[in-house]
Write a structure and sequence with these properties.
Blueprint: H1 2-28, E1 143-152, E2 167-168, E3 173-178, E4 185-190, E5 196-199, E6 213-219, E7 227-228, E8 238-239, E9 241-242, E10 258-262, E11 266-269
Parallel strand pairs: 1-10, 1-11
Antiparallel strand pairs: 1-2, 1-5, 3-4, 3-6, 6-8, 7-11, 9-10
Protein name: Non-classical arabinogalactan protein 31-like
Keywords: Signal
Pfam family, one: Pollen_Ole_e_1
Length: about 280
């Protein structure tokens, strides 16, 4: 019985030594970066009470066994497992998907409908009412008289178509010619002291045939002024122009039985042989 007790004591002591050794070994490996996680200390468990068996030894004396002090098992602090710091997984930056630019659909140009040109309705032309022509009364056939003037030009204006400084030529003769195939006509006229001539109406000359008549210079009585000039067509022939009617006067005058036509004025000048005196 004593041997068993001793053996039990040795086992307890050995276990305590092992705990101390291994416990110190573990403390050396504690990380200094983290605080140790200590588990709650349990109260030391009471050692079981030894069971005494009383054996009587010869001689009648009881031997009181000596027991070593029972030491409560010292449990090392339980450390929480040290896990390495878990890093959040690093994901590469996700790029937004690049879509190609979407082009608007290209529609062919829509052409406006081509309408045929609308023609305006064709209306028949409106014909103005045809009125029968109204005949104006025929002009009255009247006799014709011819008048005019003849001058002698100043010598210094010889060769110039002007009447500046001219004087009336008395006794000058003019010729009225009418080329009518049925009734040819040639009538002379003579100027007075004022250079005026007046040809009475011939019997065969009327207003209907006056457009075929002309008046030309025929002769001059003055030796120093005998060269006819073509002033107002005095040489080639001047046509007959109707004379404007005089303004009505307060005194009534009987109407003339003929129409008066006017020519000229005509002019003679000195010949080239004559030397003009200096003014």
């Amino acid at each position: 019985m004593g041997f068993r007790v001793n053996l039990l004591s040795l086992l307890v002591l050995g276990s305590c030594l092992m705990i101390n050794v291994f416990g110190s070994f573990d403390l050396d490996h504690v990380s200094w970066t983290q605080a140790p996680h200590l588990s709650p200390l349990l109260p030391p468990a009471a050692a079981p009470a030894p069971h005494h068996h009383h054996h009587k030894r010869p001689g009648g004396h009881h031997h009181k066994p000596t027991h070593p002090p029972s030491v409560a098992p010292v449990h090392p602090p339980t450390k929480a497992p040290v896990h390495p710091p878990t890093k959040a997984p690093v994901h590469p930056p996700t790029k937004a998907p690049v879509h190609p630019p979407t082009k608007a659909p290209v529609h062919p140009p829509t052409k406006a409908p081509v309408h045929p040109p609308t023609k305006a309705p064709v209306h028949p032309p409106v014909v103005a009412p045809v009125h029968p022509p109204t005949h104006s009364p025929l002009p009255v056939r009247r006799k014709v008289a011819v008048q005019g003037m003849v001058y002698c030009k100043a010598c210094k204006y010889k060769g110039v178509d002007t009447l500046m400084g001219a004087t009336p030529l008395q006794g000058a003769k003019v010729l009225l010619t009418c080329k009518n195939n049925k009734y040819p006509l040639r009538v002379n006229g003579t100027t007075d002291k004022n250079g005026f001539f007046f040809i009475e109406p011939p019997k065969t000359l009327t207003t209907f045939g006056v457009h075929k008549c002309k008046v030309t210079l025929l002769s001059s009585p003055k030796a120093t002024c005998k060269h006819p000039t073509n002033l107002h067509y005095g040489v080639k022939g001047a046509i007959l122009v109707p004379t404007p009617k005089p303004v009505k006067s307060k005194l009534p005058s009987p109407p003339l039985p003929y129409d008066v036509f006017t020519v000229g004025p005509f002019a003679y000048e000195a010949s080239k042989k004559i030397v003009c005196p200096h003014a």
